[in-house]
Write a structure and sequence with these properties.
The complex is a heterodimer of chains A (about 525) and B (about 80). With about 525 residues, chain A is of the alpha+beta class. Chain A is built from 20 helices and four strands. Chain A has two domains: about 5-330 and about 405-505, Up-down Bundle (Growth Hormone, Chain: A), CATH 1.20.1250; about 340-400. The radius of gyration of chain A is 24 Å and the shape is globular. The mean pLDDT of chain B is about 90. The chains are: A alpha+beta (about 525), B mainly alpha (about 80). The interface of A and B includes residues 47 and 245 of A.
Chain lengths: ~525, ~80
């Protein structure tokens, strides 16, 4: 590749990656701010509002993303890659900005959660169309022997999007007090999006169409019905299934484990301070993200299949040890308490909703010899009417860890991000190489979004089911290793994916000009 | 190797059956029942699980297994 070509492809990478990163950012801020958004748009005493809010959470991830893949994939294979992924960018940016502007439930009633639901569905549609377009666009500009390297930049965007969303939220929280943030400050990360989208749009506008697609169009070789050709013809559909079950399904669960499950595990099962967990994740992403490019580059040298399957295999065999080490590091089971520093204070106050009832707040404070500080708040409602059943006490615990435990956790999450980079780094090039130019956008987008949205997106629900079942409802857990049971889900899915990939994927043909 | 690919098809078909059984009995129905008891979030997830995700998972594994048994993945 000469200097002019290298400069050209760098512009292509910049235009594609920045836009895709922004789309991921937009998608994640909703998830990260979901608890606050729920209080603003769907008070729990209104079932309709609560239903709309829940639909917004699930539908965008599970249902709408694959539809977005089909809708925009079809458009990208008929009209062109460039215009389609410019459209997804504008759609995502506009929807995100609008979410930040929707008046609260108190002001406009159930219209608030309804508008948020519609905007969230638009976000899901846009995300479904974006990735395939960006990956295809970059791949069709790349030479055969460097495609893994160049497309791996697109692969960094999902992690970077989550990383930037955490940073923007953390900075916004730091710049104001908690009350202001919960009042209106949470809207700022949504507004920030419109500036980023504007810049990205201007960059993308100057780019030209993918050379392979432009050639196919000039020769009249584009598809008139990409959906039918992709999924209606057995010859192509078998590769769609292979891409899903032999690659994206395992990639989806490993991605979710390294990003969301690790974060929720530290927050929920280990009770680590929420802000500290976000810092741990941020550092792990900072150290891990460059490896997307490293493994993308390596896939050009030794093959995509080898790296992706190696990543899955190492993850399968090391997840239990990693999560056991995380639990032992993050919880206080191996720590010695400084008993004289322990305090427990009870305060009583009338319930704001029912002033005849009383809320007893128990605040427990513990310190440990290594510097760990543990705070727990238990709110117990004592009902004035003794004939009624009192609600379960609400527990809120937070463990602030010392430096050595903090860095050990960063390392343990970093290892998981490393697995993600092995499986996810080469996958754009791998998917692009599986399908022909005329139906590439459609064919690669659907398995990608089903693998990530369905198999990856099910991770929290299935893992929670396995954990809760193992823990039981009593004071003593049914299974002493209950906290490790959730990890069976990614292990089983990744194992199936590994076997299918090992036996069925060839991966020797990396030409994409067919 | 082609015969291994072919006969593994039976495994994928059986796995499709088990995945369907697990998705319905362990996730879909319990969530749906919890939804009937008043948990809106579980109701929505139960419906999505039963009517969207389970058919996708089972359908994909079944079709893949069938194609494998039909020698579609011979190299």
């Amino acid at each position: 590749m000469d200097k002019a070509e290298a400069k050209g492809i760098k512009s292509v990478i910049a235009a594609s990656s920045v836009g895709t990163m922004i789309e991921w950012y937009d998608f994640y801020i909703f998830g990260s701010l979901a608890p606050i958004i729920a209080t603003k748009f769907s008070p729990q005493d209104n079932p309709t509002a609560a239903l709309l809010s829940t639909l917004a959470t699930f539908a965008a991830g599970f249902v709408v993303r694959p539809f977005g893949a089909l809708f925009f994939g079809r458009l990208g294979d008929i009209v062109g890659r460039k215009y389609t992924f410019m459209m997804t960018l504008l759609l995502m940016g506009g929807a995100t900005f609008m979410i930040g502007c929707v008046p609260s439930y108190e002001k406009i009633g159930f219209l608030a959660p309804l508008i948020v639901l519609i905007l969230r569905l638009l976000q899901g549609l846009a995300l479904g169309g974006e990735y395939g377009g960006a990956a295809t666009y970059v791949a069709e500009h790349s030479p055969d022997d460097e495609r893994g390297f160049w497309t791996s930049w697109i692969q960094t965007t999902a992690t970077l999007g989550l990383f930037v969303s955490l940073i923007v939220i953390m900075l916004t929280k730091k710049s104001m007090d908690d009350v202001t943030f919960k009042d209106w400050g949470w809207r700022i990360p949504f507004w920030v999006s419109i500036f980023m989208v504007g810049i990205s749009y201007l960059i993308r506008q100057k780019m030209s169409e993918s050379p392979l697609f432009a050639k196919a169009k000039a020769e009249g070789k584009t598809s008139t019905n990409p959906i039918k050709e992709s999924f209606g013809h057995r010859l192509n559909f078998k590769y769609v299934l292979l891409a899903l079950l032999g690659a994206t399904m395992g990639q989806g669960v490993i991605w979710y484990t390294g990003h969301y499950y690790a974060m929720n595990f530290l927050k929920t099962d280990c009770k680590v301070d929420s802000f500290m967990v976000e810092e741990i994740m941020t550092w792990a992403f900072v150290f891990g993200t460059p490896f997307f490019v490293v493994f993308g580059w390596l896939s050009d040298k030794i093959g995509r299949k080898r790296i992706m399957l190696a990543g899955m295999l190492i993850a399968i065999f090391s997840y239990f040890s990693i999560y056991k080490a995380m639990y032992n590091t993050a919880t206080n089971i191996n720590r010695t308490e400084v008993v004289e520093k322990a305090t427990s204070v009870d305060t009583k106050a009338p319930d704001k909703k029912n002033p005849l009832d009383t809320i007893i707040t128990t605040t427990i404070h513990k310190e440990f010899t290594d510097g760990t500080v543990y705070d727990e708040t238990i709110k117990t409602t004592v009902l004035a009417d003794k004939t009624l059943k009192a609600p379960m006490p609400k527990k809120d615990a937070s463990n602030k860890l010392p430096s050595d435990a903090y860095w050990k956790l960063i390392f343990l999450v970093f290892i998981q991000v490393l697995f993600v980079t092995m499986v996810y780094g080469p996958i754009a090039a791998f998917l692009v190489e599986m399908f022909p130019v005329k139906i590439r956008y459609t064919s690669m987008s659907l398995p990608y979004h089903i693998g990530n949205g369905v198999f990856g997106g099910l991770m929290p629900a299935v893992a929670a089911y396995l954990t809760i079942t193992a823990k039981g409802t009593g004071t003593t857990p049914l299974n002493p290793d209950w906290y490790l049971q959730g990890i069976w889900y990614p292990i089983i899915i990744a194992s199936i994916c590994f076997l299918i990939g090992l036996f069925y994927i060839d991966g020797s043909d990396n030409r994409i000009d067919d | 190797m082609n015969s291994v690919r072919k006969y593994l098809g039976i495994i994928w078909l059986l796995l499709g059956l088990y995945a369907g059984y697990f998705s319905i009995t362990s996730v879909g129905v319990p969530k749906f029942q919890s939804g009937l008891a008043g948990n809106t979030s579980d109701m929505v997830f139960g419906i999505i699980m039963l009517f969207i995700l389970t058919p996708i998972i089972v359908g994909a594994l079944f079709t893949f297994g069938y194609y494998a048994l039909s020698n579609d993945y011979d190299q």
